[in-house]
Task: inverse folding
DNA sequence: AAACGACTCAACCGCCGTTAT
DNA sequence: AATAACGGCGGTTGAGTCGTT
């Protein structure tokens, strides 16, 4: 049997304490970091400074006590965009993603993503979502956000099986998968969110609806997540009225300006229009997709 | 006012790679 | 080389808070 590593004193160690940290414990931990730096976590317990495991101490420091943390504010639109971007590229590599978000921890990113996934999943099942007034966003300017990795830089990490967002998403279902990577614990949505631009159902307009789109929550591109052919729909589609986020351009295609728009910013009355008809996928003039790693070989 | 549901966040657990012995 | 400890990470959970009904 191996001898314990150096620095581990013999003698009894106090029982491990779990649960919320007391202010006095934080002080002890901070003092340790000031003296030794953010390392030697296990020595905190072995020296009898705190009845906490090294892992617990490290977690406390990383997630709460680090001086450069943003606390008590929601993710800004820019931060949200960065998370969506990087999650599509890296998958659920929260620690890695957090390195691009100053002041955010992997736990922050993880919680943000989890909450977002739950909310989206619920939206897909509930016809009448309700908004809660959110906390004020910190508003990270682009000058503070770290530069995102380029496509070339990330090709080695894209194909790790954790993200499907770089696959050729020409069908509704594939695009829906891309919109919900990482939602492994959630049952698949029956159909992605549908937004239909055209004359209101039941209106007298004779103009055929030109397009139907899914909400552009794809993240990195701002492109629609999926498309369906209204002509192929067995059910009437729901109208989302043009507003601050959506409109029609000269070609009767959906015009979007989602820059700086966060999920929370979508007006509740718009969400109230969503329905979940069962629609077949159909070809749609998606913007060109970036090449997949296999394409580059 | 109370009950309920949604949401946020802190913290734990288990796994895995690295490092020291 | 084998082993154990350590540190890092992702997944998960539970408590607290807040808004709605």
Result:
């Amino acid at each position: 049997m191996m001898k314990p590593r150096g620095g581990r004193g013999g003698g009894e160690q106090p029982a491990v304490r779990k649960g919320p940290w007391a202010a006095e414990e934080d002080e002890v931990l901070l003092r340790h970091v000031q003296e030794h730096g953010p390392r030697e976590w296990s020595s905190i317990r072995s020296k009898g400074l705190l009845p906490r495991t090294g892992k617990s101490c490290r977690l406390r420091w990383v997630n709460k006590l680090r001086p450069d943390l943003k606390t008590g504010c929601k993710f800004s639109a820019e931060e949200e965009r960065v998370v969506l971007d990087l999650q599509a590229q890296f998958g659920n590599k929260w620690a890695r993603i957090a390195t691009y978000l100053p002041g955010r921890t992997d736990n922050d990113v993880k919680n943000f993503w989890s909450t977002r996934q739950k909310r989206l999943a619920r939206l897909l099942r509930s016809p009448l979502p309700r908004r809660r007034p959110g906390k004020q966003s910190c508003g990270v300017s682009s000058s503070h956000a770290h530069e995102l990795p380029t496509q070339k830089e990330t090709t080695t990490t894209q194909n790790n099986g954790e993200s499907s967002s770089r696959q050729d998403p020409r069908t509704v279902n594939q695009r829906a998968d891309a919109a919900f990577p990482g939602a492994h614990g959630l049952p698949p949505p029956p159909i992605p969110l549908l937004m239909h631009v055209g004359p209101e159902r039941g209106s007298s307009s004779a103009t055929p609806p030109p397009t139907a789109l899914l909400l552009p929550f794809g993240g990195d591109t701002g492109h629609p997540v999926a498309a369906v052919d209204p002509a192929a729909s067995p059910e009437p589609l729901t109208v989302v009225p043009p507003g601050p986020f959506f409109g029609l351009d000269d070609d009767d295609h959906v015009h979007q300006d989602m820059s700086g728009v966060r999920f929370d910013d979508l007006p509740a009355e718009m969400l109230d229009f969503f329905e979940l008809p069962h629609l077949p996928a159909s070809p749609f003039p998606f913007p060109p997709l970036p090449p997949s790693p296999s394409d580059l070989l």
